[in-house]
Amino acid sequence: MVLKVKAKPGMGDELFKACHELHFNGDPDGPVEWVLARSDEDPDLMWAFEFYRDDASFDRHYSSAALQEGQLDEGHQRIADLVADGADEWGVRAPVHVVSAS
């Protein structure tokens, strides 16, 4: 999964911290590897790359009952509160599959 998220002005550091901490929530279906990258041109713009064990774990992670009902846990709500006003909650969200890697 690739996500592009725009923080409220000046809140980029807080967004990166919240996203980093959220990756340690103990979800067995969460990403097994992830990268958070900052735009060189905009310190409030984050690109997140998440890699899952398999398609089934990805599906379970993104189909939790709370997410389907639009209810966010504390960690996801913290991130949603940092997202720029008027921006889609997660900006760009695109499912991708790795073809090759080092």
From TrEMBL:
It comes from the Bacteria. Pfam families: ABM (PF03992). InterPro entries: ABM_dom (IPR007138), Dimeric_a/b-barrel (IPR011008). Residues 2-70 form the ABM domain. This is ABM domain-containing protein. It comes from Amycolatopsis dongchuanensis.
